[in-house]
Specification:
The chain is an alpha+beta fold.
């Protein structure tokens, strides 16, 4: 199965997940702890949207600098899938 980039939000947090299916993306995102103070809550509604492969997505790198690439390029760079590549609070 080909991995894709998924945008996930619960209205308070959002993130990008590389996964093959929306179910796999949801399972990966809800099980991810970014640090001790921030994790995906168990909430009533989570929206999952497939990011078209040509769409530009900006994420912060390790030095907190914004990096913009096409969705398919973010997916190709990942050595493991499923994985979360960006999470933040709205």
């Amino acid at each position: 199965m080909t991995a894709k980039l998924w945008y996930i939000t619960d209205g308070e947090n959002y993130g990008y997940v590389v996964a093959g299916t929306p179910v796999e993306a949801l399972q990966t995102a809800t099980g991810t702890i970014v640090d001790e103070e921030f994790e995906w809550p168990l909430c009533q509604e989570i929206v999952i949207r497939l990011v078209p492969s040509g769409d530009l997505v900006t994420l912060l790198d390790d030095t907190e600098e914004p990096v913009t690439k096409r969705a398919e390029d973010w997916v190709c760079e990942q050595t493991e899938a499923p994985c979360v590549i960006g999470v933040a609070q709205i």
